[in-house]
Automatic annotation (TrEMBL):
Residues 9-246 form the NAD-dependent epimerase/dehydratase domain. One of its GO terms (molecular function) is dihydroflavanol 4-reductase activity. InterPro entries: Epimerase_deHydtase, NAD(P)-bd_dom_sf, NAD(P)_dehydrat-like. Its EC number is 1.1.1.219. It comes from Collimonas arenae. This is Dihydroflavonol-4-reductase. Gene3D superfamilies: NAD(P)-binding Rossmann-like Domain. It is an enzyme of class 1 (oxidoreductase). Belongs to the NAD(P)-dependent epimerase/dehydratase family. Dihydroflavonol-4-reductase subfamily. Keywords: Oxidoreductase.
Amino acid sequence: MNIDKNIPVMVTGATGYVAGWLVKRLLEEGLTVHAPVRNPDDVGKLQYLDEIAENSPRKIRYFKADLMQVGSYEQAMAGCQVVFHTASPFKIDVKDVQKELIEPAQLGTENVLATANKTPSVKRVVLTSSCAAIYGDNADLDKTPSRMFTEEIWNTSSSATHQPYSYSKTLAERAAWEIVKAQNRWDLVTINPSLVIGPGINPNGSSESFNIIRQLGDGTMKAGVPDIGIGVVDVRDVAEAHFRAAFTLAANGRYITSGHNTSFLEMAATLLDRYGKDYPIPRHALPKWLVWLVGPIANKALTRKMVLLNVGLPWRADNSRSRNELGVAYRPLADSMNDFFQQLVETGQLVK
């Protein structure tokens, strides 16, 4: 297989958190980007992409498309060899799991890949999946062969009522692999990030990541944070992994894209030197019994089942495939956290 960088590529969800940095990387490399969006005339929504395209050797072309509308990506995908499917919501607080999480993730993926099947130019699809498709709860680590999450493992513990976001990502990725197996013209590579952090191309991004980091500085968590192990990765590293997955011809299968096996308390600690005097950065882990007692009241995502299966438990994943095969080098956790926090301060989202 030969992928020609002179041929346009398509990026779904181009205005999103990961996609913004991916588009920037593609433009800097000299590629033309086809960006299907709901409203190509929404100047405010597209201004951040337009800004990064101004000084780039190639350009962005916008196309009207809807993730849930069958066939709406046909025009944008026509003539492209590489398709990046990044569009999928990252939300925790939802009212309708089916409409807000499962359908956009699973049916949206099926719609995009069905169009890939009909587009003769497509040779590779790079799908933004998640480590959430590998595990549902930290307790799942005990079921792994070496107490380490790897690409061979699938999430079997989530459902529409327990960890529904993780469930939606699992359904979407499984659907993608079933579709690719039914044909032999194009191949699929999935990028499976852990929690994505770092500054956004759009500083007012809608990703849940922004809410999590804001809460570390707005007083929401000043009394302490739940002692939950978590994987973390910089958004710029995730974008680079997507880029390399597309143009590394030997790339195949799933790639855990996670820079650090850490915890919320360790994440907060990276902010103390620079921001600890002016912002209520949490300095303590809350006792598990307290999180179990009041967590569901403070945050409906912290169900008692979630607390029991995650609080006080570590998270570990093997990122060696992404390092060895894609050549991804991960930024230090402190750099990602401080860059992200500083953006929130500069844009007025956090106040001293």
